[in-house]
Amino acid sequence: MTILNDPVSAKLGDRAQLSYITSQAADARLNVELETEGMTLNIGPQNPATHGTLRIIARLDGEQVLWAEPSCGYMHRGYEKLTEVRSFPQVTSLINRIDWLGSFANEVPFILAAEKLMGVEAPPRAQWIRTILFELSRIANVSLFLGDLGVQLGAITPVFMAFRDREYVLNLIESATGGRFHPNFDRIGGLKDDLPAGWIDETKSVMKKLRNFCDEIESLLFGNEIFQSRTRGIGVIPRDVAMQYGLSGANLRASGVDWDLRRDQDSPMAWNKVDFKVWTHPDGDSFARCWVRLQETREATKIVDQLLDGIPAGPVMAKVPKIIKVPEGEAWVSTENPLGEMGYYVVSRGDSGPFRVKIRSASFNNISITPWLLRGVYVPDIITILASLYFILGDIDR
Amino acid sequence: MYSLLAVVIPYWGQSLLRVLGGLVAVLLPAGTIVYVFLFKMMSFMQSRLGPMEAGPYGSMQLFAEVGKWLQKEDIQPHNADKRIFRMAPIIVLMSTFLLVAVVPFGPDAWFTNFETGVFYALAVSSISVLGILMAGWSSANKYSLLGGLRAAGQLIAYELPMVLAVMGVVIQAGTMNLQQIVLAQNAGSIFGTDIVGNPYVLTQFVGFVVFMIAVQAELTQAPFDMPIAESELVSGYMTEYSGFRFLIFFIGEFATAGVFAMIASTLFLGGWGVPFSWFGWTSMDSVANWMNVAGPLIVFTKMMVLVFLIMWIRFSYPRFREDQLQRFAWKVLIPISLANIMVTAVLKVAF
Amino acid sequence: MAQIPGMIKGLAVTFNTMMRTFKNGSNTVQYPREKEAPPIRARGVIALHEDNCTSCMLCSRSCPDWCIYIEAHKELAPPRREGGKPRAVNKLDRFDIDYALCMYCGICVEVCPFDALFWSPEYEYSEPSIADLLHDKSKLGEWMETVPAAPELEVGADKKKK
Questions:
Q1: Smallest Cα distance from A381 to chain B, Å
Q2: Which of the residues A22, A47, A203, A352 could staple to A87 if both were Cys, CB 3.0 to 4.6 A apart?
């Protein structure tokens, strides 16, 4: 008699078969008893690690993540819709608030798109000052990332150093534009105003301070063995995956893709007048992303220095009518913002305001990789990976 | 204690004095540590001044903070295991008070002096694990639970290197009585020179380093602060605590730092004593009486030096991951301290 | 230098910062006692030069969140020339800016064709009640005293523009 159609038990006698079945049943019971129930952990929307209100729903087994998904939209402000009921000059004051750490950089692609539709080009001096302020906002943005990185990983001092030295950059932006965080300085056809006297010399001395800050962060954080063991090999994004998910900015360059819109795209800005290196890293892990950003901050200070030396004389505003009406048409302009590629698709119907604006913000695409990336990591690594992907909540939720 | 005041104090009086002394020995260092290191040193390391408004240079800030905490509502989560939730902070603080009981502050200034002082101190220090585990479990919060379990794993893992590091000292001194260990260090000599006595930080340097790393982990200070891990677990096992219960955890954290530093200075830096050769003392009985007054100050100074080290590292380093921490304890610290014990034992027999 | 472990270098960084703070003082400012002067262009509060205002409503219409409230009525003013007709001028009744709504973009200052609005770097006007943030025209007029002269421009700037 065979109790089971089991190839193992078929070879055994009745008695042996019975004991085999009992042992199998005991094993099964044990497995059921030892099987741990998973735990769902909501990281956010109020967790200190998510700098903003991002919620990560993570299914945990112990400390290991089985499945994770970001849930965004807690801070959705509807900028695409708001722009439809604003005139072109008003829109810049709104889109300042998308990526609130590098706000000047938000204005530039929109203004370039509007200029493209109107067929005007800013005079050279305006282009240079735009580029300088763009790079300054990149420094302000990324230097805070470097400090914030420390907080996410448990070191408390770097963030204060970042705030200390970012203050110099914000003061520069304020003394030139009038606004620390929301400059609203770009106008269609140029800039609102010229630089105040003494600004160039001050900027040069601040750039020295920031290079010093980069050195300090490098020896305090990047050289630390604990930091390296926390970030190396964590959250590896291979080159193909990075491109499939549409990452951009330092996240893409850290995966070894040599792609930078500042260099690869022909835009009416002054980047093609200076020589700078686009840093890439072959590893694609968290350390690579952080390191690429550190090098970019250094590179940005050098770009600013070069631009300050060769700033041309002339007006900062092209001839544009006082009441701006943008002719009918569609334009897409994107630039390499601190967080990655940021673009605006502007549709105009010939009114004083845009008919429709589509905002492509870098962070929204960058965090789309998190469900893929967070599978199987530990809870502390969620924080490391999110910190190294570097998103700004305003940039995700717009 | 009697000879200190040169009057006969009844037994209840002695007990009262000891309780008062214990309170002073725990709370005074805790307050000093919070002010000097947490408020001022951390601020200076971050290019700022720290609290400046309450009192001269913000020296009364801690009283302001305590007042603030005492006013706060005592919130207990609805699903919490209320009794356990209320007990947990007290158990954490209790281990600190039990720990200070064996620290000698002078030739006669001690709370209790018994033969297995080291053993007692190491045993009592792990009571705080219970409190933390209780806090983590009873809070009915997933972050607290994760924090509590991390704390339990971490504290138990680092108990072992700590015990093993102290073993070297015990072998060298030949006693587990902390008072005798102080005597052995100050009356001892290294290769015949007794100018600095024989503080075990020199001869037991490996043990000292391992002990201090283990202390850092026991105190859950960065880089070993995963149980609190404010960027991951909000505040770990303390997440749900507010008001004076949080205050007790807070005092416990810094008081324990002070008491552990006192124990470390007793074990490795010569405790309350100065090298006896400076004054020509030879044994415990020949030590001058004024050491009962100077001793606590000396212990306090040594404690501040050690807490400075602990805090300096805390303010500079990022934190480990949980598995890296365990690997570090089991694969690095324990083998090193075992080797240290072996070498010490061999040398002890050889000389 | 590359041989020094990174952890020791990190300790040196924090220690050096501590020593620098001891020696050179902190980077922070003890706010109510010391104050940092904001730059001339800083957008602190909007001042109104009432005499220049013609109630043309341009600022009110161009405000992105519509926080400027203007009411006016027409009045007959004496003629400019002897024997001419009396002119009709707008008399400002109400000019309120709600600073609880204002997002400090500066568009109103820029569009004003008669130089009636100015930026002042003053920033200390917080109020315990949100309703008090609605500044009326007399309060906006008081800010005129704090308006600085426009800064000199950098070398190479086009001097013809103001």
A1: 8
A2: A352
Residues of C with Cβ-Cβ distance to B45 under 8 angstroms: 14-15, 17-18, 21
B323 contact residues in A (CB cutoff 8 A): 378
Residue A321 near chain C (CB below 8 Å): no
Q: What percent of chain B stands above pLDDT 90?
A: 0
**Can the peptide bond before residue C78 be classed as cis, meaning omega within 30 degrees of 0?**
no
* Inter-chain residue contact C107 with A184, CB threshold 8 Å: yes
Q: Are the CB atoms for B122 and B159 separated by under 8 Å? A: yes
- pLDDT tens for chain C, 162 residues long, are 456 777 788 788 888 888 888 888 788 888 888 888 888 888 888 888 888 888 888 888 888 888 888 888 888 777 777 777 777 777 888 888 888 888 888 888 888 888 888 888 888 888 888 888 888 888 888 888 888 887 777 777 766 544
Evaluate whether B308 touches B36 at the Cβ level (below 8 Å): no
**What pLDDT is stored for residue A34 in this prediction?**
64
Give the pLDDT confidence of B74-96 residue by residue, as tens digits.
Answer: 888 888 888 888 888 888 888 88
Q: What is the pTM of this model?
A: 0.82
| Domains of chain C as residue ranges with CATH | 45-146 (3.30.70.3270)
- CATH numeric code, A79-369: 1.10.645.10
Contacts of C28 in chain B (CB under 8 A): 47-49
Residue C70 pairs in a beta bridge with: C95
- Which residue(s) pair with B190 in the sheet? B193
Q: Which residues of B touch A150 (CB under 8 A)?
A: 318
Which chain C residues are Cβ-neighbours of B46 within 8 angstroms?
A: 17
Judge whether C8 is closer than 8 Å to chain B, CB to CB.
no
The complex scores an ipTM of 0.80
Cross-sheet strand order for the sheet of A64-71: A39-43, A55-61, A64-71
Are the Cβ atoms of C38 and A174 closer than 8 angstroms?
yes
Q: Is the pLDDT of residue A238 over 70?
A: yes
For chain B, the structural domain boundaries read 2-350
Task: Please judge whether B45 and C28 are an interchain contact, meaning their C-beta atoms are less than 8 angstroms apart.
Answer: no
Q: Is B322 on the interface with A (CB under 8 A)?
A: yes
Where do the domains of chain A lie? 79-369
Strands C87-98 vs C134-135: parallel, antiparallel or unpaired: antiparallel
List pLDDT tens digits, range A280-304.
Answer: 888 888 889 888 999 989 999 989 9
Residue A216 CA to residue B291 CA, distance in Å, equals 46
pLDDT in tens, A52-66: 778 888 888 777 888
Chains that touch A (3 or more CB pairs under 8 A): B, C
